């Protein structure tokens, strides 16, 4: 199995409703997110700051606030991977991927665009989901703290596309 990787199943339910119009997919929840039981739980991850910023809203703090923010702005949120072997939170260690089935979201909501948060999510989407659903995904630079080359302002400028 390699460097202490263990098989982990995605523990967080997708957030969406019939009014969701865009779908944002990450790769797989970090250790911190898995502990918190919600997406982008690591305080250094800039997802909530960036998305709130492009919608001119305050950054949501609680899980309830985050869910309300997503639904209010017609955003569905989940990850590409349903289960995998992963060492800690390292995207580069991901192996033996099983993709999530996003058909429930696509069959419930009129999703106009699918965005991928980061290179790993984009690569995994192209490999595992595109052949199944036949819909192109749009790459966005990762909000992860590992993507230190991108400032909050630079990320907001790129992520602004989700509001159109």
Can you walk me through this structure?
This protein is α/β, with parallel strands linked by helices and 164 residues long. The protein has one domain (11-163): Uracil-DNA glycosylase-like domain (Uracil-DNA Glycosylase, subunit E, 3-Layer(aba) Sandwich). Helices cover 32% and strands 20% of the residues. The chain has helices at 31-36, 47-54, 63-72, 103-108, 119-133, 152-159; strands at 6-9, 22-26, 75-79, 81-86, 95-99, 113-117, 138-140. A four-stranded parallel sheet has the order 3-2-6-7. Strands 1-4-5 form a three-stranded antiparallel sheet, covered by helices on one side. Helix 2 (47-54) crosses helix 6 (152-159). It is globular and about 40 Å long. The termini are far apart. The model has no long low-confidence stretch (mean pLDDT 93).
Provide a concise account of the structure shown:
By secondary structure, the chain is an alpha/beta fold. The protein is built from 6 helices and 7 strands, in the order ββαααβββαβαβα.
């Amino acid at each position: 199995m390699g460097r202490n990787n263990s098989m982990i199943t995605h523990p967080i339910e997708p957030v969406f409703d019939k009014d969701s119009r865009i779908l944002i997919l990450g790769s797989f929840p970090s250790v911190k997110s898995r502990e918190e039981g919600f997406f982008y739980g690591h305080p250094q991850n800039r997802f909530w700051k960036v998305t709130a910023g492009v919608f001119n809203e305050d950054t949501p703090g609680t899980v309830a606030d985050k869910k309300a923010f997503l639904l209010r702005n017609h955003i569905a949120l989940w990850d590409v991977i349903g289960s995998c072997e992963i060492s800690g939170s390292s995207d580069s260690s991901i192996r033996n991927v099983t993709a999530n089935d996003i058909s429930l979201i696509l069959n419930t909501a009129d999703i106009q665009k699918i965005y991928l948060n980061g290179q790993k999510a984009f690569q995994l989407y192209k490999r595992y989901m595109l052949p199944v659903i036949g819909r192109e995904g749009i790459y966005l630079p990762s909000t992860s703290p590992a993507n230190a080359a991108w400032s909050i302002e630079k990320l907001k400028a790129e992520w602004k596309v989700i509001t159109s």
